[in-house]
Each structure stands twice: as structure tokens, then as C-alpha cells.
Specification:
Distance between the termini: 29 Å
Strand content: over 45%
Number of strands: 4
Structural class: mainly beta
Amino acid sequence: MLDNESPYEFLAELQIEPARVLHGEQSFSYHEPVVVGDTLTIVSTVADVAVKAAGALTRVVIESNFRNQHDVHVADTLCTIMVRNG
């Protein structure tokens, strides 16, 4: 994902400044092997947004679905980022 020309484009789309982002946690679920030479397509969705710590932080949960060049569902990720407010 980080070899994308704009790997943090989703933050701009959500109007979040990268300097305010803290990585919360991330989990991976693998359904099929991913091998050298595969081309993966990733579709990400904002699954949840919640204000925490008396408004000091906003938690954003992003679900991503990975498919290979044969349209086989190979993996999922669940990523939580925390955005410092103010």
C-alpha cells in the first residue's frame, strides 16, 4: 500500500491532517496465500467513527478488503487510528 503514489490520500479525503494521527491497532485475516508477483486491489471503508477522551481524540476504524489479480479474496485488515483533536 505504501508504494502507492499517495498512500495517505484517504486522510486528505477525510480532512485529517497526518501530523494529528496516531496508529491505534491493526489486525489481519488471511483467507488465501499471497505470493510474489500477485497484484492486489484494496478497497477500504470507514467502518466506525467515535469521539473519545472527552473530545480530545477521535477514533476512526478502517476495514480493508484485499483481492488478487484473479479476483480472489485473499485478506482483510482492520485498522484503528486515533486523531488528536484541537
